[in-house]
Amino acid sequence: MAKKPIVRLTDNFQRNLAEIEKFLEAADAIQGFGNVLDELLETVIPNLQQFPQMGRPFLRRTLNSVESATAGRGLQQQLAALTADSDSLREYVMDNYLVLYVYIRDTIYLLSIKHHRQLSFGFDAQWG
Questions:
Q1: d(C-alpha 73, C-alpha 68), whole Å
Q2: 77 within some domain
Q3: Residue 127 has what pLDDT?
């Protein structure tokens, strides 16, 4: 039986979790943070350990702006310094969150976690 990959939380991932906790606490919905942690520990991490390449390749996304294309090239260069496999940078979709991770040499690094609403420009607030 193949050895399960090690899962490591990056400092950025831990900061993201702290931000999520603060947000939910301020919204008087702190029980939601427990749900996020439960989903990470009981579903996401075991799934990734069993199928580390299950997330969709992040760098295969269509880049529709000059800014995202520039950022994508920079990200590809940084990733190339770590691995030749550009598909190792992946995204895992949870119920309400998106996890960005990279799988390199039997280790899964959880890079970022964001709520789906954090991934938009938030025009509702602009135009009420």
A1: 9
A2: yes
A3: 44
